[in-house]
Amino acid sequence: MVLPDFDAVNLESKRLLDAGLETVVFQTPPQSNDHFEASGRFIALHTGHFESMCRHLLGDSAAMEALRGLDADLLFLDVAFPCGQAISELLGKRVVLFSPVDIVDPFWSRFGRLPYSPAVHAALGSGLVHPMTWRERATNALLSPLMFWLGSSVARASAQRIARDFGLPGAGDPRDAFRGSRLLLVNAADGLVGPLLVGGEPKPLPADLAAILEGAGPRGAVYVSFGTTFRPSSCDVVRGLAAALSALNRTVIWGLNPARLPAACPLDVSILPASIHIMEWVPQADLLGHAQIKTFLSHAGVNSIYEAPYRGKPLVCMPLAADQFDGCAKAVKGGWGLQFKKEELSPATAHRLTARLEQASAEGSPLAQRAAVVGAMLKAHSRPALELAADWVEYALALPQDADLSDPAMAMPMWKRYCLDVYAAAAAAVVAVLGSATLVLRAGGRMVWRWLTAGRRSHGKTE
């Protein structure tokens, strides 16, 4: 596994790095993580961040020497990290792409030659979800090409700079990364928005967390987390959250590091009620699997939107940026989520958020029932998804080097893929036949008319 230094430190602190996993860590400039968190809403800044990471990886001689020393049969690359294409060219290895999130449209569908329809697949950040109304389809049909043009232009320019500066002519087009890969594994269930690779029974919780849940009583607990990069843009959000959670008649486990809040918006933990337990980090998937957790208040980030329905928990979501609006919309339309808009939250409106949390947490609530149904569907696979993914990787390894598993139809231009030229030729033939028949009928009609009029004139002269 290749990791930037700040990610390695973060994962090690949370005990998420497997001791048996060989890891290559490369050095990054100071405050790289802060730069990444600040760029959440802007495609160009995201691309600039990833380009910077790629340059530091390719320029880290120790990390690259370690990579070249690996006797790998296949590279397992994150589809969102563009440096994977450069690494695959340098090492000359076969590639399997993996997406830890749902397909980000329209980018990955268009790049990866995957079936894509703007009537079904919503553009990133649009907040739309299938089934769409006519107006929503019209909006998405206009938005998708603009999003694709913007994202692909920025990504291609970044890839070309990397290819030029490091002498990698084959790494200049992001589309080649998809075309040259054996497989694209996506951690999602289309239509359900659930995990395929995350699964299994929840692990035992840490003793302090287990004790809190045991003391929560029959009303259970609400879990709150807005991700590790939570940066509220308004003090009203922080104060509104504190007021809403304080008013709950339930135990609250709030995943938050108060020290990372803006200096202008400090949170005085000492004035919060004893029912609110603030923890810098919790094992989220395992916590959501606990019976005492009744509802999850989240920004609808990638992990949150996957893990909540998998564990059968309703979601109250307050999206902050990008694909979080899409995930929240799917939860709401799927019947297992409620949305609360960030811009509407303040101490004066906190009671509305409290009411939604109580609504979702109520015993036997429709939201909880629907979440349980979705969770059962996500778990209905005959084999664990991790084993299924491993089988596909083994299959890709066993194939000859020139084998192509992609759908050839998706490599064709749209007019050829849907046989529009054939339909056009057929339509032209029909028009030609109808036109010819019309001309023949008109000519025949004129002849008959002339014959009839000639007969009348002849009859008149005879009389």
TrEMBL record:
Q: Which GO terms of the molecular function aspect are on file?
A: UDP-glycosyltransferase activity
* Keywords on record: Glycosyltransferase, Membrane, Transferase, Transmembrane, Transmembrane helix
Q: Which Gene3D superfamilies match?
A: Glycogen Phosphorylase B
Which Pfam families does its entry note? UDPGT (PF00201)
Transmembrane keyword on record: yes
List membrane-spanning regions.
422-441
Q: What is this protein called?
A: Glycosyltransferase
